[in-house]
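Archive entry. Fields below.
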Amino acid sequence: MSLPVFALVEDLRAELAAWRRQERRLAVVPTMGALHAGHQALVRRARELGDEVVVTIFVNPTQFGPSEDFAKYPRNLEADRRLAEEAGATLLFAPEAREIYPAGDQTRVSVGALAEGLCGASRPGHFTGVATVVSKFFALFAPATFVFGQKDYQQLKVLERVAQDLLFPVTIEGHPVVREADGLAQSSRNVYLSARERTAALGISKALASTQAAFLAGERAPETLLEAALRVLGSHELAVEYVELRDADTLGPAVASKNEPSKKWILLVAARSGSTRLIDNTILGHDPALRGP
Amino acid sequence: MSLPVFALVEDLRAELAAWRRQERRLAVVPTMGALHAGHQALVRRARELGDEVVVTIFVNPTQFGPSEDFAKYPRNLEADRRLAEEAGATLLFAPEAREIYPAGDQTRVSVGALAEGLCGASRPGHFTGVATVVSKFFALFAPATFVFGQKDYQQLKVLERVAQDLLFPVTIEGHPVVREADGLAQSSRNVYLSARERTAALGISKALASTQAAFLAGERAPETLLEAALRVLGSHELAVEYVELRDADTLGPAVASKNEPSKKWILLVAARSGSTRLIDNTILGHDPALRGP
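PREDICTED_STRUCTURE:
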Protein backbone atom coordinates (compact mmCIF):
# COMPACT_ATOMS: atom_id res chain seq x y z
CA MET A 1 0.00 0.00 0.00
CA SER A 2 1.41 3.37 -0.91
CA LEU A 3 -1.36 5.73 0.22
CA PRO A 4 0.19 7.81 3.00
CA VAL A 5 -1.70 8.14 6.29
CA PHE A 6 -1.14 11.26 8.38
CA ALA A 7 -2.23 11.46 12.02
CA LEU A 8 -0.83 14.82 13.13
CA VAL A 9 -2.11 18.27 12.21
CA GLU A 10 1.48 19.56 12.18
CA ASP A 11 2.59 16.98 9.59
CA LEU A 12 -0.50 17.61 7.51
CA ARG A 13 0.12 21.38 7.51
CA ALA A 14 3.64 20.86 6.16
CA GLU A 15 2.34 18.68 3.32
CA LEU A 16 -0.46 21.16 2.50
CA ALA A 17 2.07 24.01 2.42
CA ALA A 18 4.22 22.06 -0.03
CA TRP A 19 1.20 21.39 -2.26
CA ARG A 20 0.28 25.06 -2.19
CA ARG A 21 3.76 26.11 -3.24
CA GLN A 22 3.36 23.76 -6.22
CA GLU A 23 -0.13 25.21 -6.88
CA ARG A 24 -1.72 21.77 -6.52
CA ARG A 25 -5.52 22.13 -6.31
CA LEU A 26 -6.90 20.35 -3.26
CA ALA A 27 -10.15 18.40 -2.89
CA VAL A 28 -11.20 16.98 0.48
CA VAL A 29 -13.68 14.25 1.38
CA PRO A 30 -14.43 14.32 5.12
CA THR A 31 -15.68 10.97 6.44
CA MET A 32 -16.11 9.06 9.67
CA GLY A 33 -14.43 6.04 8.06
CA ALA A 34 -16.21 2.72 7.48
CA LEU A 35 -15.91 3.63 3.83
CA HIS A 36 -18.29 2.13 1.30
CA ALA A 37 -19.20 2.58 -2.36
CA GLY A 38 -20.90 5.90 -1.54
CA HIS A 39 -17.69 7.36 -0.14
CA GLN A 40 -15.75 5.98 -3.09
CA ALA A 41 -18.04 7.88 -5.45
CA LEU A 42 -17.25 11.08 -3.50
CA VAL A 43 -13.52 10.37 -3.77
CA ARG A 44 -13.77 9.75 -7.50
CA ARG A 45 -15.60 13.06 -7.88
CA ALA A 46 -12.93 14.76 -5.75
CA ARG A 47 -10.29 13.29 -8.07
CA GLU A 48 -11.90 15.26 -10.91
CA LEU A 49 -11.84 18.47 -8.88
CA GLY A 50 -8.39 18.35 -7.31
CA ASP A 51 -4.82 17.46 -8.12
CA GLU A 52 -4.57 16.10 -4.58
CA VAL A 53 -7.40 14.34 -2.77
CA VAL A 54 -7.42 14.09 1.01
CA VAL A 55 -9.85 11.70 2.68
CA THR A 56 -10.27 12.50 6.36
CA ILE A 57 -11.29 9.70 8.70
CA PHE A 58 -12.45 10.98 12.04
CA VAL A 59 -15.30 9.66 14.15
CA ASN A 60 -16.22 13.02 15.63
CA PRO A 61 -17.29 12.62 19.27
CA THR A 62 -19.12 15.96 19.51
CA GLN A 63 -21.76 15.04 16.93
CA PHE A 64 -22.98 11.96 18.81
CA GLY A 65 -25.57 12.20 21.57
CA PRO A 66 -24.99 10.37 24.87
CA SER A 67 -27.32 7.49 23.84
CA GLU A 68 -25.99 7.22 20.28
CA ASP A 69 -23.54 4.79 18.68
CA PHE A 70 -20.20 6.66 19.05
CA ALA A 71 -18.45 3.77 20.84
CA LYS A 72 -19.68 1.06 18.48
CA TYR A 73 -19.45 3.11 15.27
CA PRO A 74 -17.60 0.83 12.79
CA ARG A 75 -13.84 1.51 12.55
CA ASN A 76 -11.41 -0.24 10.19
CA LEU A 77 -8.48 1.89 9.06
CA GLU A 78 -6.81 -0.72 6.86
CA ALA A 79 -9.97 -1.42 4.87
CA ASP A 80 -10.61 2.32 4.60
CA ARG A 81 -7.10 2.89 3.32
CA ARG A 82 -7.57 0.28 0.61
CA LEU A 83 -10.95 1.66 -0.48
CA ALA A 84 -9.74 5.28 -0.46
CA GLU A 85 -6.64 4.44 -2.50
CA GLU A 86 -8.67 2.40 -4.98
CA ALA A 87 -10.94 5.42 -5.57
CA GLY A 88 -8.05 7.85 -6.09
CA ALA A 89 -7.20 9.44 -2.73
CA THR A 90 -3.66 10.76 -2.46
CA LEU A 91 -3.54 11.19 1.33
CA LEU A 92 -5.50 9.86 4.29
CA PHE A 93 -5.80 12.08 7.36
CA ALA A 94 -6.78 9.97 10.37
CA PRO A 95 -6.15 12.02 13.53
CA GLU A 96 -6.78 11.17 17.17
CA ALA A 97 -9.40 13.29 18.93
CA ARG A 98 -6.76 15.32 20.80
CA GLU A 99 -5.41 16.62 17.48
CA ILE A 100 -8.80 17.98 16.46
CA TYR A 101 -9.93 19.00 19.94
CA PRO A 102 -6.75 20.39 21.55
CA ALA A 103 -6.45 20.37 25.37
CA GLY A 104 -8.81 22.99 26.78
CA ASP A 105 -10.92 23.08 23.60
CA GLN A 106 -14.09 25.08 24.21
CA THR A 107 -15.05 26.66 20.85
CA ARG A 108 -18.24 25.61 19.10
CA VAL A 109 -19.76 26.58 15.76
CA SER A 110 -23.54 26.55 15.63
CA VAL A 111 -26.07 27.20 12.90
CA GLY A 112 -29.58 28.58 13.40
CA ALA A 113 -32.82 27.65 11.65
CA LEU A 114 -31.27 25.21 9.13
CA ALA A 115 -30.13 22.99 12.00
CA GLU A 116 -33.56 22.93 13.65
CA GLY A 117 -36.17 20.33 12.79
CA LEU A 118 -35.59 17.13 10.78
CA CYS A 119 -32.49 15.40 12.22
CA GLY A 120 -31.83 18.40 14.48
CA ALA A 121 -35.06 17.68 16.38
CA SER A 122 -34.13 14.16 17.47
CA ARG A 123 -30.37 14.73 17.73
CA PRO A 124 -29.86 17.85 19.91
CA GLY A 125 -26.34 19.25 19.50
CA HIS A 126 -25.65 17.01 16.50
CA PHE A 127 -25.29 19.79 13.94
CA THR A 128 -23.23 21.93 16.31
CA GLY A 129 -20.82 18.99 16.52
CA VAL A 130 -20.81 18.63 12.74
CA ALA A 131 -20.43 22.38 12.06
CA THR A 132 -17.62 22.59 14.61
CA VAL A 133 -15.53 19.72 13.29
CA VAL A 134 -16.02 20.69 9.64
CA SER A 135 -15.11 24.32 10.43
CA LYS A 136 -11.82 22.95 11.75
CA PHE A 137 -11.33 21.09 8.47
CA PHE A 138 -12.28 24.19 6.47
CA ALA A 139 -9.67 26.20 8.42
CA LEU A 140 -7.04 23.48 8.04
CA PHE A 141 -7.45 22.71 4.34
CA ALA A 142 -8.60 26.01 2.79
CA PRO A 143 -8.41 26.84 -0.02
CA ALA A 144 -10.01 23.60 -1.20
CA THR A 145 -13.11 21.97 -2.65
CA PHE A 146 -15.02 19.80 -0.18
CA VAL A 147 -17.20 16.95 -1.43
CA PHE A 148 -20.11 15.85 0.77
CA GLY A 149 -22.83 13.28 0.11
CA GLN A 150 -26.42 14.45 -0.33
CA LYS A 151 -27.74 11.53 1.74
CA ASP A 152 -26.99 13.78 4.72
CA TYR A 153 -28.86 16.58 3.01
CA GLN A 154 -29.55 18.76 6.04
CA GLN A 155 -25.88 18.42 6.98
CA LEU A 156 -24.88 19.53 3.47
CA LYS A 157 -27.09 22.62 3.76
CA VAL A 158 -25.72 23.41 7.24
CA LEU A 159 -22.14 23.14 5.99
CA GLU A 160 -22.80 25.28 2.90
CA ARG A 161 -24.14 27.90 5.33
CA VAL A 162 -21.08 27.65 7.60
CA ALA A 163 -18.69 28.03 4.67
CA GLN A 164 -20.58 31.04 3.33
CA ASP A 165 -21.24 32.76 6.68
CA LEU A 166 -17.72 32.34 8.06
CA LEU A 167 -16.17 33.47 4.74
CA PHE A 168 -14.09 30.32 4.32
CA PRO A 169 -12.33 30.22 0.93
CA VAL A 170 -13.77 26.78 0.18
CA THR A 171 -16.12 25.40 -2.45
CA ILE A 172 -18.72 22.81 -1.49
CA GLU A 173 -19.89 20.12 -3.84
CA GLY A 174 -22.87 17.92 -3.00
CA HIS A 175 -22.84 14.42 -4.49
CA PRO A 176 -26.08 12.54 -5.27
CA VAL A 177 -27.08 9.66 -2.98
CA VAL A 178 -25.32 6.44 -3.96
CA ARG A 179 -27.59 3.38 -3.73
CA GLU A 180 -27.21 -0.38 -3.69
CA ALA A 181 -28.75 -2.24 -6.64
CA ASP A 182 -32.08 -2.63 -4.79
CA GLY A 183 -32.28 1.08 -3.91
CA LEU A 184 -31.02 1.10 -0.29
CA ALA A 185 -28.92 4.23 0.25
CA GLN A 186 -25.27 3.42 0.98
CA SER A 187 -24.53 4.04 4.66
CA SER A 188 -21.86 2.94 7.13
CA ARG A 189 -24.71 1.98 9.44
CA ASN A 190 -26.11 -0.58 6.97
CA VAL A 191 -23.69 -3.14 8.46
CA TYR A 192 -25.83 -3.11 11.62
CA LEU A 193 -28.87 -4.47 9.73
CA SER A 194 -29.98 -8.11 9.98
CA ALA A 195 -31.40 -9.64 6.79
CA ARG A 196 -34.93 -8.98 8.02
CA GLU A 197 -34.12 -5.41 9.03
CA ARG A 198 -32.50 -4.81 5.68
CA THR A 199 -35.68 -5.88 3.87
CA ALA A 200 -37.69 -3.51 6.04
CA ALA A 201 -35.16 -0.73 5.37
CA LEU A 202 -35.92 -0.98 1.65
CA GLY A 203 -39.28 0.59 2.49
CA ILE A 204 -37.47 3.92 2.80
CA SER A 205 -36.14 4.15 -0.77
CA LYS A 206 -39.38 2.58 -2.05
CA ALA A 207 -41.34 5.31 -0.29
CA LEU A 208 -39.16 8.01 -1.87
CA ALA A 209 -39.58 6.34 -5.27
CA SER A 210 -43.35 6.29 -4.82
CA THR A 211 -43.49 10.03 -4.20
CA GLN A 212 -41.02 10.62 -7.03
CA ALA A 213 -43.32 8.63 -9.36
CA ALA A 214 -46.36 10.65 -8.28
CA PHE A 215 -44.44 13.89 -8.88
CA LEU A 216 -43.30 12.76 -12.33
CA ALA A 217 -46.92 11.83 -13.09
CA GLY A 218 -47.83 15.47 -12.43
CA GLU A 219 -48.96 15.44 -8.80
CA ARG A 220 -48.09 18.76 -7.09
CA ALA A 221 -50.17 18.78 -3.90
CA PRO A 222 -47.75 18.46 -0.94
CA GLU A 223 -50.19 16.35 1.12
CA THR A 224 -50.78 13.89 -1.72
CA LEU A 225 -47.07 13.60 -2.42
CA LEU A 226 -46.43 12.89 1.27
CA GLU A 227 -49.23 10.33 1.41
CA ALA A 228 -47.59 8.31 -1.38
CA ALA A 229 -44.49 7.92 0.78
CA LEU A 230 -46.38 7.30 4.00
CA ARG A 231 -48.39 4.47 2.42
CA VAL A 232 -45.19 2.59 1.50
CA LEU A 233 -43.48 3.29 4.83
CA GLY A 234 -46.58 2.03 6.67
CA SER A 235 -46.36 -1.34 4.96
CA HIS A 236 -42.79 -1.92 6.22
CA GLU A 237 -41.49 -2.79 9.66
CA LEU A 238 -40.05 0.66 10.34
CA ALA A 239 -40.28 3.19 13.17
CA VAL A 240 -40.65 6.41 11.19
CA GLU A 241 -39.06 9.45 12.83
CA TYR A 242 -40.03 11.97 10.17
CA VAL A 243 -41.25 12.23 6.57
CA GLU A 244 -41.09 15.81 5.35
CA LEU A 245 -41.52 17.63 2.09
CA ARG A 246 -39.34 20.75 2.12
CA ASP A 247 -37.91 23.46 -0.11
CA ALA A 248 -34.61 21.93 -1.23
CA ASP A 249 -32.71 25.22 -0.98
CA THR A 250 -33.93 26.66 2.32
CA LEU A 251 -35.36 23.51 3.97
CA GLY A 252 -38.41 25.69 4.66
CA PRO A 253 -41.87 24.23 4.08
CA ALA A 254 -42.79 23.13 0.54
CA VAL A 255 -45.49 25.56 -0.46
CA ALA A 256 -47.51 24.91 -3.60
CA SER A 257 -48.07 28.05 -5.64
CA LYS A 258 -50.79 27.66 -8.32
CA ASN A 259 -50.36 23.91 -7.77
CA GLU A 260 -46.84 24.17 -9.17
CA PRO A 261 -43.73 24.45 -6.99
CA SER A 262 -41.69 27.53 -7.81
CA LYS A 263 -38.60 25.94 -6.35
CA LYS A 264 -37.07 22.49 -6.00
CA TRP A 265 -38.77 20.26 -3.43
CA ILE A 266 -37.08 17.51 -1.46
CA LEU A 267 -38.66 14.60 0.38
CA LEU A 268 -36.67 13.60 3.45
CA VAL A 269 -37.15 10.49 5.60
CA ALA A 270 -35.62 9.25 8.86
CA ALA A 271 -36.67 5.87 10.23
CA ARG A 272 -35.38 3.08 12.39
CA SER A 273 -35.15 -0.47 11.21
CA GLY A 274 -34.61 -2.46 14.40
CA SER A 275 -32.30 -0.21 16.40
CA THR A 276 -30.55 1.26 13.34
CA ARG A 277 -31.44 4.81 12.42
CA LEU A 278 -31.39 5.43 8.66
CA ILE A 279 -31.95 8.59 6.60
CA ASP A 280 -32.59 9.11 2.92
CA ASN A 281 -34.03 11.74 0.58
CA THR A 282 -34.87 12.55 -2.99
CA ILE A 283 -35.18 15.84 -4.85
CA LEU A 284 -38.47 15.67 -6.76
CA GLY A 285 -37.98 15.67 -10.50
CA HIS A 286 -34.19 15.82 -10.14
CA ASP A 287 -33.18 12.27 -9.12
CA PRO A 288 -32.46 9.93 -12.01
CA ALA A 289 -31.69 7.12 -9.54
CA LEU A 290 -35.21 7.19 -8.08
CA ARG A 291 -37.72 7.42 -10.89
CA GLY A 292 -40.34 5.37 -9.11
CA PRO A 293 -41.04 1.65 -8.68
CA MET B 1 -3.93 60.02 0.43
CA SER B 2 -2.67 56.83 -1.13
CA LEU B 3 -3.81 54.18 1.36
CA PRO B 4 -6.33 52.03 -0.55
CA VAL B 5 -9.69 51.33 1.09
CA PHE B 6 -11.50 48.10 0.15
CA ALA B 7 -15.17 47.56 0.96
CA LEU B 8 -15.92 44.25 -0.78
CA VAL B 9 -14.84 40.78 0.31
CA GLU B 10 -14.45 39.77 -3.34
CA ASP B 11 -12.01 42.62 -4.08
CA LEU B 12 -10.10 41.89 -0.91
CA ARG B 13 -9.77 38.19 -1.77
CA ALA B 14 -8.24 39.09 -5.15
CA GLU B 15 -5.66 41.35 -3.49
CA LEU B 16 -4.84 38.74 -0.83
CA ALA B 17 -4.37 36.10 -3.54
CA ALA B 18 -1.94 38.38 -5.37
CA TRP B 19 0.02 38.98 -2.15
CA ARG B 20 0.19 35.24 -1.49
CA ARG B 21 1.54 34.56 -4.96
CA GLN B 22 4.29 37.08 -4.17
CA GLU B 23 4.81 35.39 -0.76
CA ARG B 24 4.10 38.65 1.03
CA ARG B 25 3.64 37.99 4.78
CA LEU B 26 0.41 39.45 6.06
CA ALA B 27 -0.34 41.11 9.39
CA VAL B 28 -3.87 42.19 10.31
CA VAL B 29 -5.14 44.65 12.90
CA PRO B 30 -8.91 44.24 13.38
CA THR B 31 -10.55 47.38 14.76
CA MET B 32 -13.94 49.03 15.09
CA GLY B 33 -12.45 52.26 13.77
CA ALA B 34 -12.26 55.45 15.84
CA LEU B 35 -8.53 54.85 15.73
CA HIS B 36 -6.29 56.33 18.40
CA ALA B 37 -2.67 56.07 19.55
CA GLY B 38 -3.35 52.57 20.92
CA HIS B 39 -4.41 51.28 17.51
CA GLN B 40 -1.46 53.02 15.91
CA ALA B 41 0.88 51.12 18.21
CA LEU B 42 -0.76 47.86 17.03
CA VAL B 43 -0.29 48.88 13.41
CA ARG B 44 3.36 49.74 13.98
CA ARG B 45 3.86 46.33 15.59
CA ALA B 46 2.04 44.70 12.64
CA ARG B 47 4.42 46.51 10.31
CA GLU B 48 7.29 44.64 11.97
CA LEU B 49 5.49 41.30 11.51
CA GLY B 50 4.18 41.60 7.98
CA ASP B 51 5.15 42.84 4.54
CA GLU B 52 1.54 43.94 4.14
CA VAL B 53 -0.58 45.35 6.96
CA VAL B 54 -4.36 45.34 6.72
CA VAL B 55 -6.37 47.40 9.20
CA THR B 56 -10.01 46.30 9.29
CA ILE B 57 -12.62 48.84 10.31
CA PHE B 58 -15.92 47.23 11.14
CA VAL B 59 -18.31 48.18 13.92
CA ASN B 60 -19.59 44.65 14.48
CA PRO B 61 -23.31 44.70 15.29
CA THR B 62 -23.42 41.22 16.86
CA GLN B 63 -21.10 42.11 19.73
CA PHE B 64 -23.28 44.95 21.02
CA GLY B 65 -26.17 44.30 23.39
CA PRO B 66 -29.56 45.95 22.72
CA SER B 67 -28.91 48.68 25.32
CA GLU B 68 -25.31 49.31 24.28
CA ASP B 69 -23.72 52.03 22.15
CA PHE B 70 -23.72 50.42 18.65
CA ALA B 71 -25.60 53.29 17.00
CA LYS B 72 -23.55 56.04 18.60
CA TYR B 73 -20.18 54.26 18.46
CA PRO B 74 -17.76 56.86 16.97
CA ARG B 75 -17.22 56.50 13.19
CA ASN B 76 -14.84 58.59 11.10
CA LEU B 77 -13.36 56.80 8.11
CA GLU B 78 -11.26 59.69 6.79
CA ALA B 79 -9.54 60.28 10.13
CA ASP B 80 -9.03 56.51 10.50
CA ARG B 81 -7.50 56.34 7.06
CA ARG B 82 -5.01 59.07 7.94
CA LEU B 83 -4.06 57.49 11.27
CA ALA B 84 -3.72 53.99 9.78
CA GLU B 85 -1.54 55.21 6.92
CA GLU B 86 0.63 57.25 9.27
CA ALA B 87 1.27 54.11 11.34
CA GLY B 88 2.18 51.97 8.34
CA ALA B 89 -0.98 50.23 7.13
CA THR B 90 -0.91 49.18 3.47
CA LEU B 91 -4.65 48.50 3.05
CA LEU B 92 -7.82 49.46 4.88
CA PHE B 93 -10.74 47.01 4.80
CA ALA B 94 -13.96 48.81 5.70
CA PRO B 95 -16.89 46.60 4.69
CA GLU B 96 -20.63 47.12 5.10
CA ALA B 97 -22.38 44.67 7.43
CA ARG B 98 -23.91 42.73 4.51
CA GLU B 99 -20.42 41.79 3.32
CA ILE B 100 -19.52 40.24 6.66
CA TYR B 101 -23.00 38.89 7.47
CA PRO B 102 -24.29 37.63 4.09
CA ALA B 103 -28.07 37.39 3.53
CA GLY B 104 -29.41 34.49 5.58
CA ASP B 105 -26.40 34.48 7.89
CA GLN B 106 -27.04 32.19 10.86
CA THR B 107 -23.66 30.81 11.94
CA ARG B 108 -22.21 31.72 15.31
CA VAL B 109 -18.92 30.88 17.00
CA SER B 110 -19.04 30.62 20.76
CA VAL B 111 -16.44 29.98 23.43
CA GLY B 112 -17.07 28.29 26.78
CA ALA B 113 -15.59 29.07 30.20
CA LEU B 114 -13.19 31.80 29.01
CA ALA B 115 -16.14 33.89 27.82
CA GLU B 116 -18.02 33.56 31.12
CA GLY B 117 -17.55 36.01 33.98
CA LEU B 118 -15.73 39.36 33.78
CA CYS B 119 -17.09 41.23 30.73
CA GLY B 120 -19.07 38.14 29.68
CA ALA B 121 -21.22 38.45 32.80
CA SER B 122 -22.51 41.95 32.05
CA ARG B 123 -22.47 41.66 28.26
CA PRO B 124 -24.38 38.46 27.36
CA GLY B 125 -23.62 37.38 23.79
CA HIS B 126 -20.77 39.88 23.49
CA PHE B 127 -17.99 37.32 23.12
CA THR B 128 -20.05 35.18 20.74
CA GLY B 129 -20.32 38.28 18.55
CA VAL B 130 -16.58 38.91 18.83
CA ALA B 131 -15.60 35.27 18.24
CA THR B 132 -17.93 35.10 15.24
CA VAL B 133 -16.69 38.21 13.47
CA VAL B 134 -13.03 37.46 14.15
CA SER B 135 -13.47 33.87 12.92
CA LYS B 136 -14.66 35.40 9.65
CA PHE B 137 -11.52 37.53 9.53
CA PHE B 138 -9.35 34.51 10.41
CA ALA B 139 -10.97 32.57 7.53
CA LEU B 140 -10.62 35.51 5.15
CA PHE B 141 -7.02 36.52 5.88
CA ALA B 142 -5.31 33.26 6.89
CA PRO B 143 -2.44 32.63 6.83
CA ALA B 144 -1.62 35.82 8.74
CA THR B 145 -0.51 37.29 12.04
CA PHE B 146 -3.25 39.13 13.94
CA VAL B 147 -2.38 41.88 16.40
CA PHE B 148 -4.85 42.59 19.22
CA GLY B 149 -4.56 44.95 22.16
CA GLN B 150 -4.28 43.54 25.67
CA LYS B 151 -6.63 46.18 27.04
CA ASP B 152 -9.39 43.81 25.94
CA TYR B 153 -7.59 40.99 27.72
CA GLN B 154 -10.48 38.57 28.00
CA GLN B 155 -11.21 39.14 24.31
CA LEU B 156 -7.56 38.36 23.49
CA LYS B 157 -7.77 35.08 25.43
CA VAL B 158 -11.08 34.16 23.77
CA LEU B 159 -9.61 34.80 20.31
CA GLU B 160 -6.42 32.84 21.05
CA ARG B 161 -8.72 29.97 22.03
CA VAL B 162 -10.81 30.30 18.83
CA ALA B 163 -7.69 30.31 16.64
CA GLN B 164 -6.26 27.27 18.40
CA ASP B 165 -9.49 25.27 18.68
CA LEU B 166 -10.67 25.86 15.11
CA LEU B 167 -7.18 25.10 13.74
CA PHE B 168 -6.88 28.42 11.92
CA PRO B 169 -3.40 28.91 10.42
CA VAL B 170 -3.00 32.26 12.16
CA THR B 171 -0.64 33.63 14.79
CA ILE B 172 -1.96 35.93 17.48
CA GLU B 173 0.09 38.68 19.02
CA GLY B 174 -1.12 40.56 22.09
CA HIS B 175 0.09 44.16 22.41
CA PRO B 176 0.52 45.81 25.84
CA VAL B 177 -2.04 48.43 26.88
CA VAL B 178 -1.19 51.84 25.46
CA ARG B 179 -1.81 54.68 27.93
CA GLU B 180 -2.11 58.44 27.83
CA ALA B 181 0.57 60.38 29.73
CA ASP B 182 -1.52 60.36 32.92
CA GLY B 183 -2.13 56.61 32.80
CA LEU B 184 -5.62 56.44 31.26
CA ALA B 185 -5.81 53.46 28.91
CA GLN B 186 -6.36 54.50 25.29
CA SER B 187 -9.93 53.68 24.21
CA SER B 188 -12.27 54.82 21.48
CA ARG B 189 -14.83 55.39 24.21
CA ASN B 190 -12.65 58.00 25.98
CA VAL B 191 -14.18 60.62 23.65
CA TYR B 192 -17.46 60.19 25.56
CA LEU B 193 -15.88 61.43 28.81
CA SER B 194 -16.51 64.93 30.18
CA ALA B 195 -13.55 66.57 31.94
CA ARG B 196 -14.94 65.54 35.31
CA GLU B 197 -15.63 61.97 34.17
CA ARG B 198 -12.12 61.76 32.75
CA THR B 199 -10.62 62.70 36.13
CA ALA B 200 -12.73 60.02 37.79
CA ALA B 201 -11.69 57.50 35.11
CA LEU B 202 -8.05 57.96 36.15
CA GLY B 203 -9.00 56.09 39.32
CA ILE B 204 -8.92 52.88 37.25
CA SER B 205 -5.28 53.03 36.17
CA LYS B 206 -4.33 54.39 39.59
CA ALA B 207 -6.01 51.40 41.21
CA LEU B 208 -4.09 49.02 38.96
CA ALA B 209 -0.86 50.88 39.75
CA SER B 210 -1.56 50.59 43.47
CA THR B 211 -1.90 46.80 43.29
CA GLN B 212 1.12 46.62 41.01
CA ALA B 213 3.14 48.58 43.61
CA ALA B 214 2.00 46.25 46.39
CA PHE B 215 2.97 43.24 44.29
CA LEU B 216 6.38 44.70 43.50
CA ALA B 217 6.85 45.36 47.22
CA GLY B 218 6.42 41.62 47.80
CA GLU B 219 2.72 41.30 48.63
CA ARG B 220 1.30 37.95 47.41
CA ALA B 221 -2.00 37.53 49.24
CA PRO B 222 -4.80 37.85 46.64
CA GLU B 223 -7.18 39.60 49.08
CA THR B 224 -4.59 42.19 50.07
CA LEU B 225 -3.66 42.84 46.43
CA LEU B 226 -7.34 43.34 45.59
CA GLU B 227 -7.86 45.64 48.55
CA ALA B 228 -5.13 47.98 47.28
CA ALA B 229 -7.11 48.47 44.06
CA LEU B 230 -10.49 48.71 45.77
CA ARG B 231 -9.25 51.45 48.08
CA VAL B 232 -8.28 53.66 45.13
CA LEU B 233 -11.42 52.89 43.12
CA GLY B 234 -13.55 53.72 46.16
CA SER B 235 -12.09 57.23 46.33
CA HIS B 236 -13.14 58.02 42.73
CA GLU B 237 -16.54 58.75 41.27
CA LEU B 238 -16.87 55.40 39.51
CA ALA B 239 -19.51 52.65 39.34
CA VAL B 240 -17.31 49.57 39.60
CA GLU B 241 -18.59 46.55 37.68
CA TYR B 242 -15.82 44.15 38.63
CA VAL B 243 -12.31 44.07 40.08
CA GLU B 244 -10.81 40.61 39.76
CA LEU B 245 -7.44 38.99 40.28
CA ARG B 246 -7.09 36.05 37.89
CA ASP B 247 -4.59 33.63 36.42
CA ALA B 248 -3.36 35.51 33.33
CA ASP B 249 -3.24 32.37 31.17
CA THR B 250 -6.50 30.60 32.06
CA LEU B 251 -8.48 33.51 33.57
CA GLY B 252 -9.22 31.05 36.39
CA PRO B 253 -8.96 32.25 40.00
CA ALA B 254 -5.58 33.51 41.21
CA VAL B 255 -4.55 30.93 43.81
CA ALA B 256 -1.59 31.64 46.07
CA SER B 257 0.67 28.64 46.51
CA LYS B 258 3.14 28.97 49.45
CA ASN B 259 2.37 32.69 49.32
CA GLU B 260 3.95 32.88 45.85
CA PRO B 261 1.97 32.68 42.60
CA SER B 262 3.14 29.81 40.40
CA LYS B 263 1.76 31.55 37.35
CA LYS B 264 1.24 35.08 36.08
CA TRP B 265 -1.58 36.97 37.74
CA ILE B 266 -3.64 39.70 36.16
CA LEU B 267 -5.79 42.36 37.81
CA LEU B 268 -8.80 43.30 35.68
CA VAL B 269 -11.20 46.20 36.22
CA ALA B 270 -14.43 47.32 34.56
CA ALA B 271 -16.11 50.50 35.75
CA ARG B 272 -18.40 53.23 34.53
CA SER B 273 -17.48 56.87 34.65
CA GLY B 274 -20.77 58.63 34.05
CA SER B 275 -22.42 56.44 31.41
CA THR B 276 -19.15 55.36 29.79
CA ARG B 277 -18.01 51.82 30.49
CA LEU B 278 -14.23 51.47 30.66
CA ILE B 279 -12.00 48.42 31.13
CA ASP B 280 -8.33 48.11 31.99
CA ASN B 281 -5.90 45.56 33.39
CA THR B 282 -2.33 44.94 34.45
CA ILE B 283 -0.25 41.77 34.64
CA LEU B 284 1.40 41.81 38.04
CA GLY B 285 5.19 42.10 37.85
CA HIS B 286 5.07 42.25 34.04
CA ASP B 287 3.85 45.76 33.22
CA PRO B 288 6.61 48.36 32.89
CA ALA B 289 4.00 51.03 32.15
CA LEU B 290 2.32 50.59 35.54
CA ARG B 291 4.95 50.36 38.23
CA GLY B 292 2.86 52.08 40.86
CA PRO B 293 2.21 55.69 41.82
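CURATOR_NOTE: Chain B has two domains: 5-175, 188-283.
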